[in-house]
Amino acid sequence: MSVEIRRLYPGDDALVKRIAEDVFDEPVRADRLAAYLASSSGHLMIVALADGVVDQCPTIIHRHPDKVNGLYIDEVGVSPAYQRQGIARKMLDAMFALGREQRLRPSLCWNRAGQCSIARAL
After folding, report:
1. pLDDT score recorded for residue 115
2. Which residues, at least 6 apart from 86, have a Cβ–Cβ distance to it below 8 Å?
3. pTM for the whole thing?
4. From CA 25, how far away is CA 16, in angstroms rounded?
5. Distance in angstroms (rounded) separating the CA atoms of residues 81 and 5
6. Which of 12, 22, 62, 64 could form a disulfide with 72 if both were Cys (CB 3.0 to 4.6 A apart)?
């Protein structure tokens, strides 16, 4: 299985049209996606396979006046058919690498069960 981990930029909207079931909580609205991708305050990374997008990870740059800015991982959504295959781990590795490149410290992240955990750079 060939896995492509990709950070989305403005104009990459078409990549999100082929989304596997349960990757996002709600249907993706084109206007919201375009605004998110145009913002400089966050990143959206996806995992794409030949049959569509199976994983997503939106982040926000959490800015602080008194300490190093953080990379807040908002959520990780993986289609149930692709869970437990290491796909999310690869995507998180790529997201943490992006954070390190931008000198952002890992910050809090929430899972879908609403539990808070501390993300650590791998």
Report:
1. 52
2. none
3. 0.78
4. 14
5. 17
6. 62
